[in-house]
């Protein structure tokens, strides 16, 4: 097993810390989350790929569970799911709003995994998307898997712990308001949506 850290022009010593822990660090200059994920995948040498945000905590049984899921031959793609590193009323509300949508779509988040050949077959993550690249990625892999009689696996016993650092920085209610505004702007103003996304996910470097 190898750990590859895609350093997407970080300013918080991510690369330095990763190297000190024995990780491989690859620098991805293009400031798009999808590009960072693809950059890490291209540098990896393994037949199975697992993607997770660098500020998440991974359950120690994660990779054994992934090995079992893909080894069954019935799974094309899957995810562990997440729980938040802390809760508050706005964070809990966000979680309650998102979970039904995620489940109805047959998707999940956390540590997302697939076979390298399948990542390549769909062209990886779509680098034209500033957000929701993970949703498109999972939908494309599910479509590919259906043609082979394979499905999506939720590994609920090994949930990752998601960071709340954006809530911590911007305030729980303010960040929730921004997230709730996103689908409205998607319909009414793509330009305003891009400004919001860039402000929170790309220009917020500290």
Model description:
With 206 residues, the chain is an alpha/beta fold. The chain has one domain: Alpha-Beta Complex (Spore Coat Polysaccharide Biosynthesis Protein SpsA, Chain A). Helix content is 49%, strand content 15%. The protein has nine helices and eight strands. The strands form three sheets. The protein has a four-stranded mixed β-sheet, with helices on both faces. A two-stranded parallel ribbon has the order 1-2. α1 links the parallel β1 (4-7) and β2 (24-27). α4 runs parallel beside α8 and α8 packs antiparallel against α9. The mean pLDDT is 91.
Question: What can be said about this structure in brief?
Answer:
This protein is 49% helix and 15% strand. It is of the alpha/beta class and 206 residues long. Helix 1 links the parallel strand 1 and strand 2 (24-27).
Can you give keywords for this protein?
single chain; 206 residues; alpha/beta; Spore Coat Polysaccharide Biosynthesis Protein SpsA, Chain A; two-stranded parallel ribbon; 49% helix; 15% strand; globular
What's the β-strand tally? 8
Share of helical residues: 40-55%
What is the 3D shape?
globular
Number of helices: 9
Radius of gyration: 17 Å
How are the secondary structure elements laid out?
Elements: E1 4-7, H1 14-20, E2 24-27, H2 33-43, E3 48-51, H3 62-71, E4 75-79, E5 82-84, H4 89-104, E6 112-115, H5 116-121, H6 133-146, E7 151-154, E8 160-162, H7 165-170, H8 172-188, H9 190-202
Parallel strand pairs: 1-2, 4-7, 5-8
Antiparallel strand pairs: 3-6, 4-6
Helix pairs in contact: 4-8, 8-9
